[in-house]
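User: Some background: our group keeps a shared notebook of sequences we're curious about, and every so often someone picks one and asks for a predicted structure to add to the entry. Today it's my turn. The entry only has the sequence so far, pasted here. Could you supply the structure so I can complete it?
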Amino acid sequence: QVQLVESGGGLVQAGGSLKLSCAASGRTLSSYFMAWFRQAPGKEREFVAAINWNGGRTYYADSVKGRFTISRDNAKNMVYLQMNSLKPEDTALYYCAADTSGPAYYPNEYEYWGQGTQVTVSS
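Assistant: Of course. Here's the predicted structure to add to the notebook entry:
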């Protein structure tokens, strides 16, 4: 029903910033509760941040609170993750996910996923 494509990943030094984008197609983005997850090698997929249908409420993992900001622009069918004060521990493959129900904080609750974009933070 919706296709998601992430972009914006790359290599950044510790303390730097990066902004990830998720482009949606196939249906209006306002229908979905959106989230970002990440997965490092050998680790389980981890919740990072989520945002409700109109952007009025956001949710963050403790590990990223105060550093990351999730936002959405339904008119542009885009979701963003602004990442500041990046740490090497943030290195992971970052995924955009969409769900028709919410709130949801676990990977198995999300219906649609992007292909992921790699974020690597060097020290």
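Suggested note for the entry: The first strand starts at residue 3 and ends at 7. The chain is about 0% helix and 50% strand.
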